[in-house]
Design a protein that fits this description.
heterodimer, A: alpha/beta, Rossmann fold, Arc Repressor Mutant, subunit A, 2 domains, six-stranded parallel beta sheet, 11 helices, 6 strands, B: Heat Shock Protein 90, two-stranded parallel ribbon, about 65% helix
Chain lengths: ~210, ~375
């Protein structure tokens, strides 16, 4: 397996060194950045495969890094990492272009796995993010503007529900009698809808719901 | 002395004074009415008491602020009748001079009310219409005071002599106001600055107090329990939850909605058993008897998972749909064989399956040795 080159962006030095120490041998940490400015510069310079991105940072936070790097057209994938868990932040950073969201309490092994998954172009949903998505796509009576983007299929719903219940992809595949690859496809498709859907309920829902 | 808002006739002055003097408020109300009729001094006394007493703070706004208009009318009629009687009999003839004072008293009362910080804030925070109402009130107050003063002088037949004096006084006062205005304005600004500073300091003190009581305390406990990783985790998680609630969550009543109740159950069992319980809620609804039973069953499932499964984490997922609510409690522990559980063990059969069935719900247990356990609870909803 080829090693994944990772850049850690977080304003807490202790946290950065903690993550560095915990990651498995398949991950190579190529650099660290502590604020938006250095993050944008370092990403351009090092071209990492995956950026571990803290949501709350001085100078605009993770969303600002996403905006500046992705509008510049860089081919780099982001995995958001946060202590916040507030719907507003989670949905915001995913819609900003991150391919996954995990909380900072995640174990080293799980984080390693999540990074590899993002590096392969898949999406990583924590149980809480899955719950948010189900909630956001459920809470509407208005007919969707674009049915393809604005609603989840039955299968996607089932997959998200299992993620929210704490199932790993492998367990979901077994439960639904489908392959892990198919599970990944469903999750990626949900991610795409989450990022592209113009349903304004989505952002309104996230801001209205400041619950954890 | 405080003026109660509940059961007041005009402003609650008589009621407040009666409570202080341990009298029936009716006695004092009659006294005020009589004194007013005789020479207006009743109104003056009432107004003075109104000015100098604070309104009793009330917790419940529902009906407490309402005033008994029937009583107002009754006392008004009584006063009118007495007044007519007094006028006919000539008993009130000497008291005419007090009326201007009474009118002026009411005017200044209105002005004083404007200065009441609570009321001012109430008026300032709402719409333009309210602000205009403030000006109208101020105007009426000034007018009444003016009428009172002029009326008093007229009644004493001294208006003519006073007019020159009044002009002089006015000019002097105007001059003094011009001299003092910048200083007063500065003083006002200083006062405002001091006030915001004080508010800021109070907020800071509140945050410091919270951090001290919770975070610092927990950090101390963690240092003392450093040899016990399980206890450290438990402390840290419980503190994290507490801080998160304080920062992000609106005050929630755990007895009101399903999600709040499940969250609380998870928090309490996490604290009791030291195993992290991850909870995800989708949707929410009010509690009813069936859903309450489901929360109890879910709590029992969490206890089982935390105590017996040896799993490092328990996942709880609640989903509320239009017709029903479902809770999943899952661990990745050692699992068990349902038929091997002795019949006298209350946990699974009685507290979970039995309880759910009694309330018309269902409980499904999915478990296999070495693969963990998942308990799925479903209950029909009856609430909105």
């Amino acid at each position: 397996m080829k090693t994944v080159r990772v850049l850690i962006v977080d304003d807490h030095r202790l946290f950065r060194s903690g993550v560095r120490a915990e990651l498995g041998p398949s991950i190579q940490v190529v650099g660290e950045a502590e604020d938006v400015e250095t993050a944008v510069a370092t990403i351009a310079e090092l071209q990492p495969d995956v950026v571990l991105l803290d949501v709350h940072m001085p100078g605009g936070g993770g969303v600002e890094v996403l905006r500046r790097v992705l509008t510049a057209g860089a081919q780099v994938r982001f995995l958001a990492l946060s202590v916040s868990d507030a719907a507003e932040d989670v949905i915001g950073v995913i819609r900003g272009g991150a391919r996954g969201y995990v909380t900072k309490t995640i174990s080293g092994a799980e984080l390693t796995d999540a990074i590899s998954r993002v590096a392969d172009g898949d999406a990583v949903f924590s149980p809480r993010l899955a719950g948010f998505v189900l909630d956001a796509f459920a809470s509407t009576e208005a007919p969707p503007i674009d049915p393809e983007l604005d609603s989840l299929t039955q299968r996607e719903r089932e997959v998200l529900r299992l993620i929210a219940r704490g199932y790993a992809y492998k367990e979901i595949a077994k439960e639904l009698f489908i392959s892990v690859k198919t599970v990944e496809t469903h999750v990626s498709s949900v991610l795409r809808k989450l990022q592209l859907s113009n349903r304004h309920e989505l952002s309104r829902w996230a801001t209205a719901r400041r619950l954890v | 002395m405080l003026r109660p808002r509940a059961g007041r006739v005009v402003a609650g002055v008589a009621q407040g004074a009666a409570a202080q003097l341990r009298l029936d408020p009716v006695v004092l109300r009659l006294a005020f009415v009589l004194l007013t009729i005789l020479d207006g001094v009743g109104v003056v006394a009432y107004a003075a008491l109104w000015m100098f007493t604070a309104t009793q703070q009330i917790e419940h706004h529902d009906r407490a602020g309402s005033r008994d208009w029937g009583q107002v009318a009754a006392y008004g009629l009584l006063g009118f009748a007495f007044g007519a009687l007094a006028l006919v009999s000539g008993a009130a003839a000497g008291g005419l001079a007090m009326w201007p004072i009474a009118v002026g008293g009411i005017g200044s009362l209105i002005l004083w009310q404007q200065a009441d910080p609570g009321l001012r804030q109430k008026w300032m925070t709402s719409t333009v219409g309210r602000v205009r109402a403030t000006w109208v009130r101020s105007g009426i107050g000034l007018l009444l005071v003016g009428v009172g003063v002029i009326g008093f002088l007229a009644a004493q037949d001294q208006l003519a002599q006073a007019s020159t004096g009044l002009v002089f006084t006015g000019v002097v006062l105007g001059g003094v106001a011009l001299i003092a205005a910048p200083w007063l304005a500065g003083l006002w600004r200083e006062l405002q600055k001091e006030r915001t500073e004080r508010i800021r300091q109070e907020e800071r003190a509140e945050v410091a107090a919270h951090v001290h009581d919770s975070v610092l305390h927990t950090l101390t406990l963690i240092q003392r329990a450093a040899h016990d990783p399980r206890e450290v985790t438990r402390l840290a998680r419980s503190q994290e939850r507490d801080l998160r609630n304080w920062l992000y969550m609106p005050k929630q009543d755990a007895d009101a909605t399903l999600a709040a109740a499940v969250r609380r159950a998870a928090a309490e069992e996490e604290d009791a058993h030291g195993v992290p319980i991850e909870i995800v809620c989708v949707g929410d609804c009010d509690l009813d008897d069936g859903l309450r039973a489901m929360v109890h069953a879910a709590r029992q499932a969490m206890v089982n998972a935390a105590k017996y499964s040896e799993s490092s984490v328990v996942s709880v997922y609640l989903e509320v749909e239009p017709g029903e609510a479902t809770v999943f409690v899952r661990d990745r522990g050692k699992g068990f064989v349902l038929d091997d559980v002795p019949g006298d063990r209350m946990g699974i059969r009685q507290s979970i399956i039995g309880r759910m069935e009694r309330f018309g719900g269902t409980a499904r247990v999915k478990t296999a040795q070495g693969e963990g356990t998942e308990i799925m609870l479903t209950m029909k909803r009856t609430t909105g």
